[in-house]
Design goal:
about 375 residues, alpha/beta, 12 strands, six-stranded mixed β-sheet, about 20% strand, Purple Acid Phosphatase, chain A, domain 2
Length: about 375
């Protein structure tokens, strides 16, 4: 719990510093020079700082009554980030106000307007339905009867306060349209409230495939309460792989681990990848891990295909570059040792309902023998 407390402290510190910087720079724009406008700006800064934390508290206690504040607070996360990026870019361009002094207020005004336009574009993109992205993966040792087998991957749906039953049913309809042989859910199906997810069980039970639906937990299943989250996934009819492997069909093995990122935050140790892949049945192995972590170890242990998510491809550019510091393979298809790694951009979103430049996705993966 100490590591988790440190993580939360860091998040709140960054949240506070971003607010401080953004409103400090906005206060230098001539429109806010009057004392009354400056006071209003400070009140707005305080209210917006509290918006998202307060929304999460109200949401857990008041349910749908807290939805308007949660929606507004979530959007503000994205707007704040883009304001921070644009105003920082303006500072770099003007030498933090030491160059082009007369033009600096105007440049900051343009940066603020640019952040607004980018926020609007990101909101439109974030609310679009996920694209269906098709991938073909060649696998040695694939049995002839499995050549052409279709796996549909869902990841990072974050069903909860902003993405509810109607949205989920539309995603299931998309999955059905691809006629998958197998469906995998690579974590963060839930957001942070297990009770809300339980209400979606009738919809979740409609997610089906001939060879089954396999799932692993993500970090948000840990945050929502791991045992209860796993219970919801199992009640939906999913086979939850917790450092374990199972045979989906003769010669086709699905293995998976509980989320490695959350385990690091909680200080739970290591060796989980070995546990998931040791003693598994014979056959080609599809390995599920919410975070694209320890992929080299999975490849060394014989995983043929690794399916991950978690990164959201940064969700709001240029946050992608920060995500890459922790997860260098942030999206797409990669060759790692003898394994193919596919990292999903995610099917839903976390926090702001926003994505800049690239929308969410559902992956349709076709296996081919070589």
């Amino acid at each position: 719990m100490t590591r988790l407390a440190i993580f939360l402290l860091i998040v709140l510190s960054v949240w506070t510093l971003m607010h401080g910087y953004v409103f400090w720079r906005i206060s230098g724009i001539p429109f806010f020079a009057a004392s009354a406008a400056r006071r209003g700006l400070m009140i707005a800064a305080a209210a917006l700082w509290f918006s998202y934390p307060l929304a999460r508290i109200l949401s857990s206690r008041a349910g749908r009554l807290g939805f308007p504040l949660e929606a507004a607070g979530s959007v503000w996360i994205g707007v704040l980030f883009l304001l921070f990026v644009c105003l920082l870019a303006a500072d770099v361009a003007t030498g933090f106000g030491f160059l082009f002094r007369e033009q600096t207020p105007r440049i900051r005004t343009v940066a603020m307007a640019g952040a607004g336009l980018l926020s609007l574009g990101a909101l439109v993109q974030g609310l679009r339905p996920p694209a269906i992205a098709e991938r073909t993966v060649e696998m040695k040792g694939l049995r002839p009867e499995h050549d052409g087998l279709v796996i549909v991957q869902l990841s990072d749906l974050h069903v909860g306060p902003l993405l509810g039953e109607a949205w989920l049913l539309r995603r299931i309809a998309q999955v059905d349209s691809m006629s998958p042989d197998l469906v995998v859910v690579t974590g963060d199906l839930l957001d942070s409230d297990a009770a809300r997810a339980e209400a979606l069980l009738p919809a979740l039970r409609r997610l089906r495939a001939p060879l089954g639906v396999f799932a692993v937990t993500g970090n948000h299943e840990f945050y929502a309460g791991l045992s209860r989250s796993v219970g919801i996934l199992e009640a939906a009819g999913f086979q939850v792989l917790r450092d374990a492997a199972a045979e989906a069909a003769p010669g086709l093995v699905i293995a998976g681990v509980d989320d490695l990122t959350a385990r690091r935050q909680l200080g739970e140790g290591d060796g989980f990848v070995d546990r998931a892949l040791s003693g598994r049945p014979a056959g080609v192995t599809v390995y599920l891990s919410h975070s694209p972590s320890e992929v080299e170890r999975a490849a060394a242990l014989g995983a043929d295909l690794v399916l991950s998510g978690h990164t959201h491809d940064g969700q709001i550019w240029p946050f992608t570059y920060l995500v890459k510091l922790a997860y260098p393979r942030v999206t797409g298809v990669h060759r790692v040792g003898g394994a193919t790694l596919v990292v999903s951009r995610g099917t839903g979103f976390w926090g702001p309902p926003m994505r800049l430049f690239r929308r969410a996705e559902i992956l349709k993966i076709t296996l081919r023998g070589v």
